[in-house]
Amino acid sequence: MRKAAIPGLLVLAVLRLPSLMEPHWYTDEAGYLNVARQLLQGKILYLQTWNNKPPLMLWTFALDVKLFGTSEIALHVLTLISGAITVAAVVWAAQRLYTPRRALIAGVIAGVILGLPIVDAELALPESLLIAPLTWAGAIILVHILRGDQTDARRRFPLWALGAGVLMAAAIAYQQTAVAETSALFFAMLLAPNVLRRDAFIFIGTAAVITLAWLTLAISTAGLGKVAFALAGFYIDYTKTALPKSAVGGATHFALAIVVALAIAAGAILNRRRPRVDWVLALWAGSTLVVTAVAGQQYPHFLEPAVAPLALLVAGISVPSAARFRAGNRRSLIGPGLQAGGLVVAILMAKVAGVDWLPIPPSATDPHTLSDYYGGAAWAAFDPTFRTTWLDDFDYRVAGDAKVAAWVMRNGFSGDTAVVWSYDAWIYALANLQIIMPTPPIYNDEVLLGSGGPVETYVAAKQPVLIMVDIDSQVLYPEITKLLDSGAYVKEYTTYPYTVWVRADSVSRLP
Question: CB-based contacts of 191: which residues, under 8 Å, 6+ apart?
């Protein structure tokens, strides 16, 4: 496997080099990192600090913060390792499903897609981390579906099914939507002639027991209502915002997704005795794509879990000769036709997720292009004066975050309580400020506490030493103006896009 994996791993590593130069800029990374800081301070997840992701995602961040602080490089090295593990799993599976040459191709395909920033795989997001255990679980199951057990399977305990279940439990503990891929792989195992149903139930049982264990622990500390809202209830309104507004449009949206899922599943039933495992790959990829389509959100990283099965499908393409096609039974084409048609429709529906860093020439209105990403990184590496310009292109708050954090530390406010009234929460971590809000990003506080006033009331009651207001977020959530105009806070520092307000009784601390 080593030789076949090297090209894909090299491509991945080279394409990820600019990610090691990225600034602190992505909002979700800031949210996870700040919740991780609070976990390290002893706060209880979902009760005293809030996030809508499962515990493993946040504790992975906590370990990273414990070892490396707020380093963005450390976060992106973590996703590079996850990507490399994923590419290795793709190659390992392809060597056993196809030929060494096709394994190399599959590894390169996966390396290119995960190396480029088009699906945000370089960012420390749940999908960027769960793809490692998910892909290895899928690879192990694929090989056993193809080959079966080489020994008397009924007399030996299937450690492979147990291991795959543990890996899928890890994927679910990073992102709850991995339940979809888990269900698809379980369904494939039930259909596969070479796999005992006992092994399928050991796989799903292992994943379920581990998931129930951490859910039970979370519920015992935070309460059923808090955990249920964080991991499920939150997503109801979240998904509604992306759905068609009419009842007919919403029903059509879900009906089409159900039809697509049923088509792919029906095709799998018809294809289950074929000598190849393309039908399993279609189930696997389809589960990710249908969930992405249903969510309807413009987040490219939702597509990451589909990279491995699609890379394996593309690398394994085999076009039958015309004579073989004519000699075949037309009924045998129904299964492949259902799955191929279902996958095409799923891809068309899931394209709503889009891609980041569009592969087009530089644009004056959108600096997020591949030419700016790679060309700018190369220029920035050799020209320190241009580096600032390149970093600022990632997000309009990058320079302001750094300047505000420097001002806070220079004036001795590091470690004080603060509220960052912004979609971006990096300042908390960069300046080592104490978070008093239920959750770091202000837009989620508006969800948890209520919009139009309750968040301002909460802030006023907590009386933080500092309030940093992002001009755009003040337009979106203007209620903070009431507190700022009350005289309780004094404007002391301004740098685009932030204004820093200091509590009146703390102004005397300034030099």
Answer: 268, 269, 272
